């Protein structure tokens, strides 16, 4: 079976690292991104240099019409998707709950919860044996924040990842008999530019002393777990969560 992977939010960080490992694993790759054309083209060039057939598709994966167009391009240019990595996400500035606006909440939940659910929907229409597919795998990128709650920082973000965890578990059971495995990774403090969105780009370095392993993680360490969960080596894993938090 040809391996075709869609990675959302793949122009940077964990998504970009996953794309590079997917190229080495023989996938045809769709690099989805929202804004940064230059970064997406850079990742695209890297995976093509590694020998992968790949495309970069600009799409807001919290909007179903754009998701539909994304998967139609994948169908036409790479073939039917067999793997989906729901990596795209957002976070707000460090805030207490009483300081959070309705606009922030709606944007965050649409990106971090609704988006992955809609992407999974359109992947399943192609993967599931119920719809004539040959099976596949979905990995959702959650966070250790889902079980820690992130008080005094971003409870809303933690709650969105808690919702993603529940979705992972429910969907895994729903499609387990249809050839599709659904799992999640829960990264902790990882060195990516994601933390700049919360207003503190040096956050990981500052918090390293409080991590049991004494260091922040690297994006490639998360990517390795994602590619493993999608591989045949994890063939009996579904509804599973891999915590990648250095002991947190």
UniProtKB/TrEMBL annotation:
PROSITE patterns linked: ADH_SHORT
Recorded hits in InterPro entries, A to Z, give: NAD(P)-bd_dom_sf, Sc_DH/Rdtase_CS, SDR_fam
Q: Which keywords belong to this entry?
A: Oxidoreductase
Kindly indicate whether the keyword Oxidoreductase belongs to this entry.
Answer: yes
Where does the source fall among the domains of life?
A: Bacteria
Record family assignment: Belongs to the short-chain dehydrogenases/reductases (SDR) family.
The protein's name in its UniProt record: SDR family oxidoreductase
Q: Which organism is it from?
A: Pseudomonas rubra
């Amino acid at each position: 079976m040809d391996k075709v992977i869609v990675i959302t939010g793949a122009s940077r960080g964990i998504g970009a690292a996953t794309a590079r490992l997917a190229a080495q694993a023989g996938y045809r790759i769709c690099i989805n991104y929202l804004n940064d054309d230059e970064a997406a083209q850079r990742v695209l060039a890297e995976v093509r240099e590694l020998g992968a057939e790949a495309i970069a598709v600009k799409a807001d994966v919290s909007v179903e019409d754009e998701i539909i167009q994304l998967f139609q391009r994948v169908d036409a240019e790479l073939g039917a998707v067999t793997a989906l990595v729901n990596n795209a996400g957002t976070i707000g500035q460090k805030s207490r709950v009483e300081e959070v606006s309705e606009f922030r909440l709606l944007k965050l939940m649409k990106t971090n919860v609704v988006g992955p659910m809609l992407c999974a929907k359109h992947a399943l229409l192609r993967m599931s044996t119920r719809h004539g597919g040959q099976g596949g795998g979905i990995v959702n990128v959650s966070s250790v924040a889902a079980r820690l709650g992130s008080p005094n920082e971003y409870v809303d973000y933690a709650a969105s990842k808690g919702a993603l965890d529940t979705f992972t578990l429910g969907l895994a059971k729903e499609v387990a008999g249809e050839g599709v495995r659904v799992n999640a990774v829960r990264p902790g403090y990882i060195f990516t530019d994601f933390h700049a969105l919360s207003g503190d780009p040096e956050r990981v370095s500052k918090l390293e002393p409080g991590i049991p392993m004494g260091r922040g993680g690297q994006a490639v360490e998360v990517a390795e777990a994602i590619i493993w969960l999608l591989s045949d080596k994890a063939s009996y894993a579904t509804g599973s969560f891999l915590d990648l938090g250095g002991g947190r």
